[in-house]
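ARCHIVE RECORD
Type: protein–small molecule complex
Small molecule: NAP
Source of inputs: curated submission
Record status: active
Notes field left blank by submitter.
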Amino acid sequence: MAHIIDGKKIAAEVRADIAERVAAFKAENGFAPGLAVVIVGSDPASCVYVRNKKKACEAAGMNSRVIELSENTTEEELLACVNELAADNTVHGILVQLPLPKHLDENAVIAAIPPEKDVDAFTTENVGRIMLGDFDFLPCTPAGIMTMLRQEKIDIAGKRCVVIGRSNIVGKPMAMLLLHANGTVTVCHSRTKNLAEVTREADILVVAIGKARFVTADMVKPGAVVIDVGMNRDAKGKLCGDVDFDCVEKVAGAITPVPGGVGPMTITTLLENTLTAARRSLEK
Ligand code: NAP
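STRUCTURE (tokenized, with ligand):
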């Protein structure tokens, strides 16, 4: 049976450390790091994510502000809101909750966030800097996974790493971070041929595809580390990952559960990035 990687516990330890550093920052500089989260519309999943981000910020001693805009907000209005936050010295990090309603251009909105306040690391400048390995901010989910691997003392150098999924927010940056950590990385996607043959070579398998229980035991090398990013509802409405946990845990060496695995680590990186943004604001 695999070792179950407890993302909740690791996240709590890392967040306690961040809270201590936030307290020291406040004592030294007389102000708290501040995060502004903009949400457009009332998508239920997005509302839950935003609420959790606000709660985590406050628990870490940071200021957090949620700006709720109606579903019918125009792009001009949303850009005006982002520009206002960009000019506000009490706001160090800006996050626009995605996805946006269809009539809004996500790329244009992300481009309006100043790179030094881009705590999601989605702007062109920050994505480019990640590629070069010279960054202030890392995208929250992949960086959370790297923290988790580090805390679990899982060595990446020289390991065969396979990432399933090539999205801009998870798959691609995940592959890049594993590469920076000297993993030998393969990225798979919906056009990959003989997927199971590739995944069976992985010492570390990261799955981010958005399909309930897609990865089965026959796709996993015995003893592999399996990181499940997926957040899906199965036919019964139960929250589950992209990995068939019950079968795969019998084969893997270590595995993250859903819920309680990668999810809590994502917000942890957001806190780290907001503290970094506040520090950087002092250097201006
Ligand atoms: P996405 O943008 O929909 O990307 C999915 C990727 O999976 C695509 O690259 C797609 O390939 C690939 N894919 C789809 N079907 C496949 C198949 N049958 N075989 C191989 N590859 C396949 O999704 P995402 O934003 O990366 O999110 C992935 C999952 O992670 C979702 O469940 C999401 O809810 C979850 N998530 C969780 C967190 C967290 O904090 N826990 C954060 C972010 C996302 P193509 O490129 O060829 O289409």
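CURATOR ANNOTATION: The pocket of NAP is lined by residues 141, 164-167, 169-171, 188-192, 195, 208-211, 229-232, 262-263, 266 (CB under 6 Å).
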